[in-house]
Amino acid sequence: MLHSQNLHLSVPGRVLCQNLTLTLEPGQCWAILGKNGSGKSTLIHALSGLSKPVSGSIRLDGKALTEISRRNLAQRIGVLLQEESASFSGPVLDYVLLGRFPHAGSWRPDDGDLEAAREALKQTGMAQAQSQSFATLSGGERQRVRIAQLLAQEPDILFLDEPLQHLDLPHQLAMMRLFRELADSQQKTVVMVLHDIFWASHFCSHALLIHDEGKILNGESALMISENSMETLYQCRFHKIETSDGNYFLPTLE
Amino acid sequence: MRSRRLLFFGLLLLAPTSILIALSSGSADLSLTQLLHGNAAQQEIFWQLRAPRAASAFACGALLALSGVLLQVLLRNPLADPYLLGISGGAAAGALGAMLLGLAAAIKFSAFGGALIALLLVPALSFRRHAWDIHHLLLTGIALSAGFGALISLLLSIAPSAGIHGMLYWLMGDLSYAQSPVQTWAALLASGLASVLLARHLDVLAIGELKAKSLGIAVLPVQGAAYLIAATATTAAVLEAGSIGFVGLVVPHLLRLLGMDSHRWLIPGAILLGGSFLTLADTLARTLVAPQQLPVGVLTALTGAPLLLFLLSRRR
User: Fold this and answer.
1) A32, A145, A219, A221 from A224: Cα distances, Å
2) B264 burial level (CB within 10 Å; 0-12, 13-18, 19+)
3) Which CATH number covers residue A66?
4) Per-residue pLDDT tens for B183-238?
5) Is residue A12 within 8 angstroms of chain B, CB to CB?
6) DSSP H or E stretch at residue A242
């Protein structure tokens, strides 16, 4: 269980989050929604311990993140970053195996690591590419391999910053099913930044809306996501399209 | 995977071969049996001249290649080079200063002082707000190198013409004054072992600092260790042989192109290939226009520059 108390986040010249008290529990699947630049990535970095908040505390099962070693933290919390600064020139399987680092016993990956990496690639539908060079993959394939690396890490809490970027619609659906399944059957906590309201309302149990000036609302997604709340959040008008699968929100063209 | 093992096996064979070639070639053509069981003069050529020089050449090449590998990860730049951070510039300025003052005995000491100044100054100037700004590190190193370069030009321009020849040889890199293979090998063993222990950390660090942090890497200590090992390796090589160029740049790059991406393979591979490359280059430098000797740095640059251009043209 990850608990934040009176969390305060800012970037130079702007407050992104004020007095956020939030509890993330096993089995929950969270969507973080908000406009560009509202602080979604900054919030993920703070909650996962990658950056220090201005003030407030974040505790993992009652222990402050700052008191947990990097390695132990990486065994519990994993992050899919929105962007990766460096490239990787080796094969896909080697890239996914890097996700096993927090569990590494010896100086080279063992059979358990290999098994976890292969299973993760299977889950994201990239098993056939395991010996291909990572650099030759398309953007969408690369994204699925990056997700596989996070799965191979086997953390209890998964933070995903725009996990669906570069993916085609069928693969977006497959990944959303996979994330929900992790929460439902393995009791993982999944927290992801999404830009698609339908995926958020259909697959996420909870939603966190980041408004301007650091005002944050959070709760069960069924209560949080409505035509009104979305129009306030994104400051634009939406068409609501009702289907047998649920409601779609699309911006009006005026 | 199999080709990686095959390549590594080839490198394992290349290393002793290069040393044997270095030992048996020279102005006196000696066979191996003559080297080992020859008369007193032949024994002296072997023990006093060829063996220490071959040992120094191998260790320097290995140190430079190792330093290149580490700096290429640290600076996130596949074209980073051991001399980018001003260490060789500092050492050269120190050595030339001692030569100019006629302090022949203090050359090494003074070179070490110069290297140490660069080694400490560059990270200190690039450390900002409790974090190491790697781009800043690169720029600081380049700026400091340029400053040392100007100082070296100044020293050359005011030096008496009799002393210039020795200075130029130092700047180009030359193994004919290599006298301390034992210290150089000690530096190689220590830095080689330390970097092999760091190999898996380096693999993770290579995919980005933030991602490495999320995977459990204590980024700053690992960066600091990589920097220290690279700086030690560069300093040891430069003190023994002057500024031999291109080994640290070309060797790691070549191995990466051949599929050695993981540092578990890349580090030992670079040590073997860098050592063999410089040993062979130095043998050529001794024998090509014998009895004249060429500075080996000229040969490594002459072979390294076209090789690098070829590799660059193959980059996508």
Assistant:
1) 11, 32, 6, 5
2) middle
3) 3.40.50.300
4) 999 999 999 999 999 999 999 999 999 999 999 999 999 999 999 999 999 999 99
5) no
6) strand A238-243
Dist CA B247 CA A170 (whole Å)? 49
Helix (H), strand (E) at residue A247:
strand A246-251
Q: Of A37, A153, A134, which Cα lies nearest the Cα of A95? A: A134
Q: Which residues does A128 contact at the CB level (< 8 Å), separation at least 6?
A: none
CA distances to A58, A131, B107 from A21, in Å = 9, 45, 64
Amino acid found at A63: K
Share of chain A above pLDDT 70, in %: 98
- What is the spatial distance between Cα B108 and Cα B101, in angstroms, rounded to a whole number? 13
pLDDT at A245 over 90: no
Distance from CA of A149 to the nearest CA of B (A): 10
- Best of B75, B196, B202, B207 to substitute, by most chain A Cβ atoms within 10 angstroms, is B207
Q: Nearest by CB to B216, which of A88, A89, A101?
A: A101
Determine if residue B167 is left, alpha or beta; phi over 0 gives left, psi from -120 to 50 gives alpha, anything else beta: alpha
**How far, rounded to the nearest angstrom, does the alpha carbon of residue A112 sit from its chain's CA centroid?**
25
What are the respective helix, strand and coil percentages of chain B, to the nearest 5?
80, 0, 20
Cα distance between residue B49 and residue B54, in whole Å: 9
Is the ipTM reported for this complex over the cut 0.95?
no
- Looking at residue A194, the DSSP 8-state letter turns out to be -
Distances (CA, A) of B316 to A89, B258, B261, B285: 12, 15, 17, 34
Closest Cα of chain B to A38: distance in Å? Answer: 20
Domains by residue range for chain B, with CATH? 2-314 (1.10.3470.10)
* Structure-block tokens of residue B132: 């190491």
Q: Residue A89's pLDDT is what?
A: 84
- Number of structural domains found in chain A: 1
For chains A and B, what is the number of CB pairs under 8 angstroms?
67
Length of chain A: 254
* Domain coverage including residue A204: 2-251
Q: What is the Cα–Cα distance from B271 to B69, expressed in whole angstroms?
A: 10
Nearest CA in chain B to A150: B215
Average pLDDT over residues A59-78: 95
Tokens 């590494």 belong to A104
* Peptide bond between residue B291 and the one before it cis (omega within 30 degrees of 0): yes
Count Cβ atoms below 10 Å from residue B256 Cβ, excluding itself.
Answer: 19
Within 10 Å of residue B204's Cβ, how many Cβ atoms?
Answer: 25
CB A146 within 8 A of CB A171: no
- How many other β-carbons are positioned within 10 Å of the β-carbon of residue A240? 12
B217-222's contacts with Cβ under 8 Å and 24+ in sequence apart are B217/A70, B217/A101, B218/A70, B220/B131, B220/B132, B222/B198
* Rg of chain A, C-alpha, whole Å: 18
Cβ distance A88 to B207 less than 8 Å, yes or no, reads yes
B217: chain A residues, CB-CB within 8 Å? 70, 101
Residue A101 carries which side chain, given as an amino acid letter? F
The answer to whether the Cβ–Cβ distance between A153 and B197 falls below 8 Å is no
Spatial distance between the Cα atoms of A83 and A74, rounded to a whole number of angstroms: 19
